[in-house]
Amino acid sequence: RLGSPVSARWLIELRLDAEIAKDGQDKAYLTDGVANLHHWPMAGSRGPGLAAYESYIEENGPLFRDFFSVLSKKESYPVLFHCSAGKDRTGILTALLLDLMGTPRDLIYDDYLHSMRITPKLKVDRAWMDAVFRAVDGKGGIEPFLRTCGVTDQQMASVRSNLAK
Known about the structure:
Elements: E1 10-13, H1 17-23, H2 28-31, E2 36-39, H3 49-59, H4 61-71, E3 79-82, H5 89-100, H6 105-118, H7 126-138, H8 142-149, H9 153-163
Parallel strand pairs: 1-2, 1-3
């Protein structure tokens, strides 16, 4: 319910400093009582749209490693992560997580494209998410992709175990 306290143990803020300066800090109802508030700006160096997605996926390996490290620990849950609109940076992390969990890609795409259905002014393009999965598949799938980011097999197993319940 909007305005009620969030019971997250971890909050991961993906917005850049300039976005926070423009739009403001997270509301107190998101942060009050959250033990682990982390600002992990997820940046891309190349423009909007497809170029942004390509750079997000190429340039944020350490962030992906840290994200999956958090998710591998039972004591981290519940975890809240967000950016500005929740479709680009949050969408990429969600797609990687869902792929690791074995979610069919058609369902991941549908979830991603749902952003546009519920908020028609948001620009969402299937080709942008295609870039994410091209990068993943170019490494041999989600597990080899995450390994190149520094995520261990044990962490991947723990994430699956933590979320399968």
